[in-house]
């Protein structure tokens, strides 16, 4: 009986060690493809208001106008000659021509001004950008900072230089399968055990508010502000605020850095034990260094 129990325990230990070794040593899934930004939607449902409000408000007004017209026709007797004279006078009045000219000029001016009223859409360039994390640990008795980086970061944002407070930022994506540190063994543990990138390929930050960005934009100026939103790692989402510094290099290029500090335990992340690592800090620094270029409006589908 005791022998049987010992055999079962030995088998379980071997199985556990084998699974642990497999988790550490197996090759993680590669990225499914080059990262692409989720297009930022700037659609505004203005037509709904224009279509709904006037329709309900104008119908009673039109009915009242018709009733008033009928009363006037019933009350007044106008000869056919008088009606013709009034029609000729109305057609000859110069005010009608002026009004039509003003309306055409206003319409042309409005069409010419409409392109300038649209914000510029900027897209992060992965080849010139970087997403990374930093976490401290005690490695073989000495402090060490683990840094993981990837250029597979994507996102779009819209900026109107005349009103920075109207800026919008779309979801920011980072491909976790492409994160790499200085050690291949650590990379396998990071992807296979900590982030489970085979199942959860992307880390996503969805902005909900921009704080501290206002006024007008000028090329060469530096702007400091906060981006508040929801950060999703694996299947856990938590609110996070990124401290951001951005520079308008030119009208067509923006650069900047956004950083935030989080507790990895808040995202239900577990760091496996290692004989070489005595301890790991609770906080993780997340950062994105980005270069973004204005998109060509004619290239939009």
What is the typical, i.e. mean, pLDDT? 79
**From the 3D coordinates, which CATH architecture of the largest domain would you assign?**
Beta Barrel
C-alpha-based Rg, rounded? 33 Å
End-to-end span in angstroms?
Answer: 73 Å
Tally of structural domains = 2
Number of DSSP helical runs: 5
- Strand fraction equals 25-35%
Major sheet attributes: 13 strands, antiparallel
Tally of strands: 13
Please identify the structural class as seen in this structure.
alpha+beta
Give a description of the structure.
Helix content is 33%, strand content 33%. By secondary structure, it is an alpha+beta fold. The protein folds into two domains: 50-116, no CATH class; 119-295, Beta Barrel (Lipocalin). Strands 1, 2, 3, 4, 5, 6, 7, 8, 9, 10, 11, 12 and 13 form a 13-stranded antiparallel beta sheet that branches. The chain is elongated. 18% of the residues are buried.
């Amino acid at each position: 009986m005791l022998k049987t129990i010992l055999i079962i325990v030995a088998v379980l230990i071997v199985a556990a060690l084998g699974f642990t070794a497999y988790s550490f040593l197996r090759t993680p899934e590669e990225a499914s493809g080059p990262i692409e930004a989720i297009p930022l939607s700037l659609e505004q449902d203005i037509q709904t208001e224009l279509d709904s409000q006037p329709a309900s408000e104008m119908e009673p007004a039109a009915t009242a106008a018709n009733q008033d017209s009928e009363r006037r026709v019933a009350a007044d007797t106008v000869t056919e000659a008088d009606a013709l004279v009034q029609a000729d006078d109305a057609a000859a009045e110069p005010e009608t021509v002026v009004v039509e000219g003003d309306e055409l000029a206003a319409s042309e001016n409005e069409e010419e001004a409409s392109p300038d009223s649209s914000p510029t859409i900027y897209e992060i360039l992965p080849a010139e950008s970087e997403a990374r994390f930093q976490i401290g640990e005690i490695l073989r008795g000495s402090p060490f900072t683990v840094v993981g980086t990837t250029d597979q970061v994507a996102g779009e944002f819209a900026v109107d230089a005349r009103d920075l407070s109207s800026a919008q930022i779309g979801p920011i994506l980072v491909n976790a399968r492409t994160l790499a540190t200085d050690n291949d063994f650590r990379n396998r543990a990071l992807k296979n055990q900590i982030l489970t990138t085979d199942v959860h390929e992307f880390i996503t930050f969805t902005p909900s508010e921009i704080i501290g960005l206002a006024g007008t934009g000028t090329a060469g100026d530096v702007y400091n502000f906060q981006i508040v939103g929801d950060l999703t790692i694996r299947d856990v989402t938590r609110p996070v605020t990124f401290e951001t510094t951005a520079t308008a290099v030119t009208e067509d290029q923006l650069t900047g850095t956004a950083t935030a500090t989080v507790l990895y335990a808040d995202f239900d992340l577990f760091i496996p034990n290692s004989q070489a690592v005595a301890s790991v800090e609770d906080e993780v620094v997340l950062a994105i260094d980005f270069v973004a270029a204005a998109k060509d409006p004619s290239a939009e589908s």
